[in-house]
Specification:
By secondary structure, the protein is α/β, with parallel strands linked by helices. It has 2 domains: about 10-125 and about 290-300, Rossmann fold, CATH 3.40.50; about 130-285, Aspartate/ornithine carbamoyltransferase (Rossmann fold), CATH 3.40.50.1370. The chain contains 13 helices and 9 strands. It has helices at about 15-30, 50-60, 70-75, 85-95, 105-115, 130-140, 160-170, 185-200, 210-215, 235-240, 245-250, 275, 285-300, and strands at about 40-45, 65-70, 95-100, 120, 150-155, 175, 205, 220, 260. The strands form 2 sheets. A 5-stranded parallel sheet has the order 7-6-5-8-9. A 4-stranded parallel sheet has the order 2-1-3-4, sandwiched between helices. Helix 7 (about 160-170) links the parallel strand 5 (about 150-155) and strand 6 (about 175). Helix 1 packs across helix 13 (about 285-300), helix 6 crosses helix 7 and helix 7 runs parallel beside helix 8.
Length: about 300
Amino acid sequence: MYGRDLISIADLSPQDIQRVVDTALMMKNGRSSSALRGKTLALLFEKPSLRTRVSFDVAMQQLGGHAVYLSPGEVGLGEREPVADVARVLSRYVDGIATRTFQQETVEELARWADVPVINALSDGEHPCQALADLLTIHEKKGRWRGLVLSFVGDGNNVARSLMLGSALAGIDFRIASPPGYGISTALVDKAKSLAAASGAAVVCVESPQEAVRGADVVYTDVWTSMGQEKEQAERRRAFGGYQVNAELLALASPDAIVMHDLPAHRGEEIADEVIEGSRSVVFDQAENRLHAQKAVLSLILGGEGA
């Protein structure tokens, strides 16, 4: 993985994903590393962030490196200065770029022009770093991927897309329940099914949350309205009215199913407070694992070090 971009989780092979998780687990269990001593990561953000910004910044510090945060106002990506120019300038200063943007095309353009690795820290298209932390959490809690069923209830958004592709690569059966018009595109589902065919997994898209959750080992949800979609909030609340992960829906899952949410959560909308605070919730372990997964990704891509 050394020197490569991470734009989509589908840029990784199943072996790459296993290596990220193995490296993250070793680091989480106490193996220290100074693999990035003397290296600098630019955090180029168009959106505000808690977990993404802090986990990347702390990850660089713990690996001996340094992070420089660049806010929207400081750079004006694509407005104050062309994306291509930003990419070429930063390539002269830093060893890597982690970017959190509104459009997937912005990440792709940065990668096209940059001479250093570009990591997609979130775009409207995908959230590969979140999916890696999720796969780490599932492996940690369940001890395996193959044979598991992951049910995603809600919008076919960036998190759902990366999770679908990552599950297909890892061998997890992926089911998603979304209202009409809010699912994942047919083209991307077909891509995931092709990856799943190689791993022995299945990808299923349905409208019924009950159908998706029945017997699932992992029940996952996310906000109904993401950043940039605020004008659609009332319409989305109506469309997703029957898609809340609550005790009644969770009762259909496997008795030892875990509940996941990438945060921030709108409690009382996509997830009931009793569920996110319940004994089956691993939401805050999942949030912690953003740090460990980020450390693994950075050490492998910028330092060439890993399991």
